[in-house]
Amino acid sequence: MADPTLYNMSAGYSPGLGVPDWLNKGDNAWQMISATLVGMQSVPGLVILYGSIVKKKWAVNSAFMALYAYAAVWLCWVTWGYKMSFGHKLLPFWGKAGPALEHGFLLAQAALPQTMHFHHNGTMEATAIMPAYPMASMVYFQCVFAAITLILLAGSLLGRMNFIAWMIFVPLWLTFSYTIGAFSIWGGGFLFHWGVMDYSGGYVIHLSSGVAGFTAAYWVGPRSTKDRERFPPNNVLLMLTGAGLLWMGWAGFNGGDPYSANVDSSLAVLNTNICAATSLLVWTCLDVIFFKKPSVIGAVQGMITGLVCITPGAGLVQGWAAIVMGIVSGSIPWFTMMVVHKRSRLLQQVDDTLGVFHTHAVAGFLGGATTGLFAHPSLCTLFLPVSNSKGAFYGSGMQFVRQVVGALFIISWNVVVTSLVCLAVRFIVPLRMPDDELTIGDDAVHGEEAYALWGDGEKYDSTKHGGWYSDNDMHHNKAPSGVTQNV
């Protein structure tokens, strides 16, 4: 039982129970479940997907990049990142930095102070967002979104980025790029009050990570020539496990953004699955038509583009619109990846390992644009602070313009800031691994390999890392009890 002395009793806490009058247990439970689902998309979801979709020699490095980013974002988020994204305004696009660690702050009712919206004449149009659960739940929910953004960005850099450079890059990019987009569109910044629609991160997360990943890939440089020519996944079935966690976790990704377990949350989850399934099927059909074979990797790409595309409008569009968005997301990114990419000198020059530009930047922009077309006015009233919000299909062509302008801001900011961050990191350490590490892979970078198979090109240096299983030990020393030696 909680100690009642820990709480401010005048704020409405029931003695000894930790249940204030404003707390809605259902909303709080759903918000924490949603946050956990999004967290599981990253760990273990994308950790597994990245570790299995890459060439075997990069399995450990790729998975570790995702794991490190998830951990690093957590510490940065509670120390300064949350308030820069959702706190009080410093600039029209940025909040004031500060810690989110003190129990008085975390146990108070959640509030986004800059989201109070006013009419042009100065009268209040919408109150500030104040969900019926504690700030701790809000900090948790928003943190896992920030973390997955960095992990998605990493997909463009797999197979060659210096891990030390990545360790420095993550907190810098989170601070100077992610927090800007989050505050501008979600936290009460200028795009929020202008009425740009981004239900759950099509711009803040996916467009941002796709553009930033592509930009960072330019500065880091390409993989080795051998890896660019042949980069087969080391475990397709395990890749599908990671992809499945990603899809199922999207129920929390989009279902948690109304900040309540309400009817709009249910619609968002349903639309998410409709769009993802449609997009997967369209992508697979295109593979069959043009390449004569259905590709499971292609199906995963189609699934991802569908999930990304619906994200800006998951709770704002009707079911038929989700199908249309699935058709769009399963075809246009397929075309940019399979046709445009092979004909564009710029796209060929930049080594975007997993095609994050196509699956997240292109699909995220399409989602934002189509939301500007199909957002239903009655659904907008359930979520948006700006009255009379609606898509162009329902008579507001200006909403489509807002969506395009919002996308251009996110694109331009990420190109500039990501470039500056990469240049800053390059002054400290090289962005790209040296050639000898690129040749060997995980064993050279981490002294570890994903699959311990003897005689499989092992370069493990036992004098540096230790271990009973060096060549010398194998011939002269007895293996530990219970372990069979195979020489």
What does this structure look like?
The chain has 487 residues and is mainly α. The chain has 20 helices and four strands. The strands form two sheets. Strands 1-2 form a two-stranded antiparallel sheet. A two-stranded antiparallel ribbon has the order 3-4. A hairpin with a 5-residue loop joins strand 3 (117-118) and strand 4 (124-126). Helix 2 (59-86) runs parallel beside helix 5 (163-185). The protein is globular and about 65 Å long.
| Cα gyration radius (Å) | 24 Å
Q: How many distinct helices?
A: 20
Structural class: mainly alpha
Give the averaged pLDDT, no decimals. Answer: 89
Q: What characteristic shape results from the CA principal axes? A: globular
Give the termini separation.
58 Å
What proportion of the residues is helical, as a percent range? Answer: 55-70%
Strand content: under 5%
Biggest sheet strand order reads 1-2
What is the number of strand segments?
A: 4
Described by strand count, sense and barrel closure, the largest sheet is:
2 strands, antiparallel
The low-confidence parts are 1-16, 454-458, 465-487
| SSE ordering | HHEEHEEHHHHHHHHHHHHHHHHH
Topology:
Blueprint: H1 25-53, H2 59-86, E1 89-91, E2 94-95, H3 103-106, E3 117-118, E4 124-126, H4 135-154, H5 163-185, H6 190-194, H7 202-220, H8 225-229, H9 236-255, H10 263-291, H11 296-310, H12 319-343, H13 345-349, H14 356-374, H15 377-380, H16 397-428, H17 435-440, H18 442-446, H19 462-465, H20 471-476
Antiparallel strand pairs: 1-2, 3-4
Protein name: Ammonium transporter
Subcellular location: Cell membrane; Membrane
GO molecular function: ammonium channel activity
